[in-house]
Design goal:
Elements (H helix, E strand, L loop, with lengths): L2 E10 L6 H9 L5 E3 L9 E3 L21 H14 L10 E7 L9 H7 E2 L2 E2 L1 H10 L5 H5 L3 H10 L5 E6 L3 H14 L6 E8 L3 H9 L8 E10 L7 E5 L24 H9 L3 E6 L5 E6 L18
Parallel strand pairs: 4-7, 4-8
Antiparallel strand pairs: 1-9, 1-10, 2-3, 5-6, 8-9, 10-12, 11-12
Helix pairs in contact: 2-6, 3-4
Length: 310
């Protein structure tokens, strides 16, 4: 079973950016939910992340129009996690958990309307009238693997990489693959990130259609893995073997104070829960078993000054 050290942790959620502060706020009964200004969902509330500021991390400011909300949340937490990190970025692994089908925030509705004939999408209409009104930049915001691509390009990460798309367990699947990459020597260190946002009208509609209870939320979590025994470790993780049908699954409910954060909920559960094992299934029969040891030193979480250059 691979065992690795976690040497950096960064998160961004409705209750802040510090793990201990978020845990304390949740235990105190505080809520990060605020009203959402969505005409289609009057009275809706959700866990919204302020900002964030992308200026320190974007190579070109104009590229912000290419970023989905998940990428906007992911880029700063990944940037902060790598600030001052010594591993060469051309060897650093990069593993992401993302939503299976990111929302288009209604930008594709005009195409669907122009392509409809008698209430059904007509292929001829789609390739003519529909194509003429299709937003040209939409694929660059909705393809799942592009969240990883934007982070890799803007932060210069060029090691082995992979994207896992799905629900809350997708980030934990990325964590497992990253741990094996470090243990097997495919990279000296790996950055794992899960980011998601459900506070737009389209995502909230989809949550309600699927019967998901709770207010929508958004969050991003970034974790740096290094070989076990690293002197700057915050805590260690052990990735167990595939479970059997008799093993008890650990539920991964969202924290009501943060909202339903989708893919980010898996890594949030890992960081915000007490030490111990998480045994969860990814929906296709594969299992993720992760055991977290106690924290070794919270004073190591922000080794570089906030205003340091990335």
């Amino acid at each position: 079973m691979p065992r690795v050290a976690v040497t950096r942790v960064e998160l961004s959620c409705a209750l802040g950016e510090d793990v201990q502060d978020v845990v304390t706020a949740i235990e105190a009964g505080k809520s990060g939910l605020t009203p959402l200004q969505l005409d289609a969902h009057p009275g809706a509330v959700g866990g919204v992340v302020p900002g964030p500021d992308l200026k320190p991390w974007l190579l070109r400011r104009k590229d912000v129009k290419l970023l989905s909300r998940a990428a906007i949340l992911a880029l700063p937490v990944c940037g902060r996690a790598l600030r001052g990190h010594e591993a060469p970025k051309d060897q650093l692994g990069l593993y992401f958990g993302v939503r299976r089908e990111p929302p288009d925030v209604e930008e594709g509705h005009a195409t669907m309307e122009a392509s409809a004939k008698d209430g059904v999408v007509d292929l001829l209409q789609l390739t003519t009238a529909g194509k003429d009104v299709y937003p040209p930049l939409l694929p660059l915001r909705t393809l799942p693997n592009l969240v990883l691509a934007h982070v890799a390009i803007n932060l210069g990460v060029m090691g082995p990489s992979d994207t896992f798309a799905g629900g809350p367990v997708a980030g934990l699947m990325g964590l497992r693959e990253a741990a094996w990459a470090v243990v097997e020597g495919r990279c000296p260190a790996a950055l794992v990130c899960a980011a998601d946002s459900a506070v737009d009208a389209t995502s909230l509609r989809d949550l309600r259609r699927m019967g998901v209870a709770g207010a929508p939320g958004e969050a991003a979590v970034a974790i740096v893995l290094e070989p076990s025994g690293a002197p700057n470790a915050l805590f260690e993780l052990e990735i167990g073997p595939a479970g059997s049908g008799d093993d008890a699954l650990t539920p991964l409910p969202h924290h009501a104070a943060l909202g339903v954060c989708g893919v980010a909920d898996g890594l949030l559960a890992l960081l915000l829960s007490p030490p111990g094992p998480l045994r969860v299934a990814d929906g296709s029969g594969a299992w993720v078993v992760v055991s977290r040891a106690p924290w070794l030193g919270r004073d190591r979480m922000r080794p570089a000054a906030e205003d340091d250059a990335p």
